[in-house]
Amino acid sequence: MIATGRPTIKVEATVNAPVEKVWNLWTNVEDVKQWNHASEDWHTTSAQNDLRPGGSFAYRMEAKDGSFGFDFGGTYDEIRPYEYIEYTLGDGRKVKNDFNRNGDTTHIVVVFESEHTHTEELQRSGWQAILDSFKKYAEEKTDDSNL
């Protein structure tokens, strides 16, 4: 687990796609812009990703009606391709992403340190919604015969 002493929250999903496909969709910025939202009234307008220890990522998330937006980013601490990504968010919180291969499916487990502005349940539901959006996107891309 994360050793900073902050409370952690876990979300998870099983994606009906092989881990190599899941990894690529998770880390490719053009794909990130398609799935990185908690609801259909939000979208990611820009994404940058330097996937290496010490590299950083930055995503801009905005309400589609233009009423609100925020930046989400951090620095990568550890990467094991097709298995694990750990990073530190801009506010110092740690996040761990496990990609567990199970034949042609991938079980993703995300553990993140909670912040103090929103309730743990709101944070859990938001991160779970984004993970569910990823699952839907990845499974649609896997079913796409043009791949």
Characterize this entry briefly.
With 147 residues, this protein is of the alpha+beta class. The protein has a domain of 97 residues: START domain (Alpha-D-Glucose-1,6-Bisphosphate, Chain A, domain 4), CATH 3.30.530. It is built from three helices and seven strands; from the N terminus they run E-H-H-E-E-E-E-E-E-H.
Structure characteristics:
SRPBCC family protein, START-like_dom_sf, ASHA1/2-like_C, alpha+beta, 147 residues, single chain, globular, Alpha-D-Glucose-1,6-Bisphosphate, Chain A, domain 4
Give the quaternary arrangement of the chains: single chain
Give the overall silhouette: globular
Described by strand count, sense and barrel closure, the largest sheet is: 7 strands, antiparallel
β-strand number: 7
Would you tell me the overall average pLDDT? 93
The percent range for strand residues is 35-45%
CATH topology of one domain: Alpha-D-Glucose-1,6-Bisphosphate, Chain A, domain 4
Low-confidence stretches: none
Distance between the termini: 37 Å
Fourth CATH level, the homologous superfamily of one domain? START domain
Question: What pattern of helices and strands is seen along the backbone?
Answer: EHHEEEEEEH
| Second CATH tier, the architecture of one domain | 2-Layer Sandwich
Coarse structural class: alpha+beta
- Trace the largest sheet across and list its strands: 1-7-6-5-4-3-2
Q: What is the radius of gyration?
A: 15 Å
Give the helix tally. 3
- Proportion of helical residues: 25-40%
What is the CATH class of one domain? Alpha Beta
Family: Belongs to the AHA1 family.
Protein name: SRPBCC family protein
InterPro entries: ASHA1/2-like_C, START-like_dom_sf
